[in-house]
Amino acid sequence: MSLELITKLREMTGAGISDCNKALKETANDLDKACQWLREKGMASAVKRAGRAVKQGLIYSYIHGVGSLGVLVEVNCETDFVAKTDDFQNLVKEIAMQIAAMSPMYVNREAVPAEVLEAEKTVYKAQLKEEGKPEKAWDKIIEGKIEKFYSTICLYDQTYIKDASGKTTIKDMVNEKIGKIGENIVIRRFARFKLGEE
After folding, report:
1. What is the sign, positive or negative, of the torsion defined by CA atoms of 65, 70, 75, 81?
2. Which run of H or of E encompasses 146?
3. Sheet containing 69-77: which strands, arranged edge to edge?
4. 69: helix, coil or strand?
5. Are strands 186-194 and 69-77 parallel, antiparallel or unpaired?
C-alpha cells in the first residue's frame, strides 16, 4: 500500500490512517472510490463539517499528581447539547492529558511562526553540511525532518499517547469523534503550567 496514496486520501477526507488504508484496499487504490467508501461509512464527515461555526464547547482544567503540572484547554463544538455529552467531555479530558504528557507548543502546524520554521531549517542545513550529505538531497531530507518537528511540537500532529500502535494522531482522534458525534470540533487553545518552569 502506497503511503503517498494514504496521505492524499487523509488530506481529502480527514479520515484516520487505518480507515484510509482499509478504504484503498476495498477499492483497489482508486482515490475517488475510496473517498466515496469512507463517506458511505461515515468516516469522512469531518471534512464536510470543517466550515461549520463552533461557538459552544468546554474549557477544561487538568491537574496532574499533587499539583506540580496543570493544563487548561478550550475545545469547541457547535451546540451546547453536544458540549454536555460524555463523548465530548471525555475527548476534552484525553486532549488535556495529551498536553500534560507531551508538552506541545502549538495547536496545529498553521500556528507555527514562519521564523521558527526557518530557524529549524537553518539548523538542519548546517547538520546536513556537517554530515557531508549531497546538497541535492537536502530539500527532501529537510522536508522529512520538518514533518517530524511538527509531530513533536503541534498538538494535532502528535501521536495519541494511549494508542499502542503509534499510528493515531490527535487530529485522527478528533476527526473520528466528529464522525461519531456529527458536529464540527476544534481545539481552540491551551496553556500548560509546570511548577518552577519559566
Report:
1. positive
2. helix 138-153
3. 56-64, 69-77, 186-194
4. strand
5. antiparallel
HSE of 196 in the Cβ direction (CA atoms, 13 Å)? 2
Q: How far, in Å, are 101, 119, 125 from residue 134 at the CA level?
A: 38, 21, 11
* Coil/strand/helix, residue 193: strand
Crossing angle of helices 3-13 and 31-40, in 10° steps, is 50
Between CA 42 and CA 45, with CA 43 as vertex, the angle to 5 degrees is: 75
Q: Which pTM does this prediction carry? A: 0.72
Q: Which cell numbers hold the place of 165?
A: 500502535
Question: How many helices and strands in the chain, by DSSP H and E?
Answer: 9, 3
Name the phi and psi angles at 165, rounded to 5.
-75, -20
Reduced to 3 states (helix: H, G, I; strand: E, B; else coil), residue 62 is: strand
Terminal-residue alpha carbon distance, the chain? 46
CB neighbour class for 145 (10 Å; exposed up to 12, middle 13-18, buried from 19)? middle
> What CA–CA distance (Å, rounded) separates 134 from 143?
15
Helices (H), 16-85: 17-26, 31-40, 45-49, 80-83
Chain segment 138-172, per-residue pLDDT in tens: 888 899 999 999 999 999 999 999 988 888 999 99
Quote the longest CA-to-CA distance of the chain.
Answer: 58
pLDDT digits (tens, 9 = 90+) for 104-116: 999 999 999 999 9
> For residue 173, what is its C-alpha cell?
482522534
